[in-house]
Amino acid sequence: MDLWRIERELRADGLESICGVDEAGRGPLAGPVFAAAVALPPDVDLPGLGDSKKLSEKVRERLYGEIAEKALDYSIASASSEEIDDLNILNATFLAMNRAFDGLASRPAIALIDGNRDPRIKCRSKCIVGGDGKSASIAAASILAKVARDRHMLAMAERYPQYGFEKHKGYGTKLHYERLCEYGPSEIHRQTFLKKWKAAEGKTSARQRFVGDGHWASRPGRDPRAGARQRGKWGERIALEHLEKKGYACVAEGYTSRFGEIDLIVKNGECLVFTEVKLRKNSSFAHAREFVDREKQRRITATANLWLASHETKLQPRFDVIEVYAPDGVDTVSPEVIHIENAF
Questions:
Q1: Cα–Cα–Cα angle for 42, 47, 49, nearest 5°?
Q2: Quick one: 9 and 127 in the same domain?
Q3: 20 to 30 Å CA-CA from 5: which of 180, 192, 212, 324?
Q4: By C-alpha distance, which of 261, 298, 287, 290 is closest to 276?
Q5: 233 in the same domain as 146
Q6: How many CB atoms lie within 10 A of CB 184?
Q7: Is there a contact between 134 and 149 (Cβ–Cβ < 8 Å)?
Q8: pLDDT tens, 185-231?
Q9: How far is Cα 60 from Cα 262, in angstroms, rounded to an integer?
Q10: In whole angstroms, what is the distance from residue 252 CA to residue 265 CA?
């Protein structure tokens, strides 16, 4: 992926001053959401630059220093957990993005925004879905925001050592929920993100229990994964319908190997697309691509290689992610579908 293509095209159109804007921390149960705005010199050398979520912590830390040193201008800002509760996570993210943009020393000609929603900053802007993997400016912003937030949560781990923030950075892991059950929420927890947990704490019935990934497990003897599988199949059906409307053709619905599973295999033009589908039911979850980490990518790639070894094809393999966002639950509304091509 040529991370500088978008910037070169914009400069060719006369837009010399460009900044990228991205956020980090929409999904956690605790702590602020961070955002960064970065203006880079044309084709500056930043080895390893890419989507912050696909980089190791060591590489992110190195790039943070290099970006801060070489950028023409940059700014990092946040919106607090209180502001998230007051405004909701989407509007709080927009607030953090606007604060970061307003912190730049000079106003650029255009801002490239990661995602498909315009935060309405005071500048001409262009939204790019999966922008942190397509634009050098957005990738740089994603790294600054991610590292700044991680550093903040490490500081919070010292202030609130009982929660283990240094391990999960505030995301809803099993450990985090266990510590919440033991100690209750802190001042930096997002109260609106804890409704499920609070409801679970208020229930004393032995027929149900709350497990660490935020789902309800039924009484002993029932499979707690059955509902999740049903929801997953619904999300995959929605994703396939979305792809077929775009001209894709279905090759296989689901392929499982000893390494893992691929949700959909479709073809479009000269590409054979191995597709991971993520269903999100509320905004407290992180973006889908945050859950397709390096280990998940490795399993998907290994499974795809097994499929290719047993099927003759001249099509070029590609890996996409589709996020199906259904805040009102499955089978009730037409959900928002976000298709991220060349996700990894």
A1: 75
A2: yes
A3: 324
A4: 261
A5: no
A6: 13
A7: no
A8: 999 999 999 987 887 666 533 333 334 333 334 334 444 445 566 77
A9: 29
A10: 5
Determine if the pTM surpasses 0.70: no
Residue 232 has pLDDT above 80, yes or no: no
Reading the block at residue 336, the tokens are 């928002």
Residue 79 belongs to a domain: yes
Q: What is the pLDDT of residues 94-147, one digit of tens each?
A: 999 999 999 999 999 999 999 999 999 999 999 999 999 999 999 999 999 999
Task: Look at residues 149, 50, 137, 53 and name the one whose alpha carbon lies nearest to residue 93.
Answer: 149
Number of domains in the chain: 2
151 and 10 fall within a common domain: yes
Q: How large is the average pLDDT for residues 233-254? A: 89
Residue of 168, 124, 160 lying closest to 21 (CA atoms): 124
- 194 within 8 A of 29, measured Cβ to Cβ: yes
Q: Where a domain ends, among 155, 175, 207?
A: 155
- Domain with 45 in it: what CATH number? 3.30.420.10
Q: How far is CA 256 from CA 47, 253, 343, in A?
A: 36, 10, 20
End-to-end CA distance of the chain: 10
Using CA atoms, how far apart are residues 103 and 94, in angstroms rounded to an integer? 14
Q: Please, which residues bridge with residue 337 across strands? A: 324
Q: What share of the chain is helix, strand, coil (3-state, %, to 5)?
A: 40, 20, 35
Q: At which of 129, 155, 181 does a domain end?
A: 155
Residues 243 and 138 in one domain: no
Q: Which domain holds residue 72?
A: 5-155
Cβ-Cβ contacts under 8 Å for 306 (sequence gap 6 or more): 257, 259
| Contact present, 339 and 322 (Cβ < 8 Å) | yes
Residues 6+ apart with CB under 8 A from 185: 30, 191, 194
